[in-house]
Specification:
Oligomer: single chain
Strand content: under 5%
Distance between the termini: 34 Å
Structural class: mainly alpha
Radius of gyration: 14 Å
Number of domains: 1
Largest sheet: none
């Protein structure tokens, strides 16, 4: 795997992670909001 492919994978994974965090932070469940913080 080339450096550019690795970088693209890392960026994609981080974007997915941030999407999950955003979803959790907007959750109605207090515990999940705390985890997201």
């Amino acid at each position: 795997m080339t450096f550019n492919e690795q970088a693209a994978n890392i960026i994609r994974n981080q974007a997915e992670f941030l999407t999950h965090i955003e979803t959790l932070s907007h959750s109605g469940e207090w515990g999940l909001q705390r985890v997201a913080e």
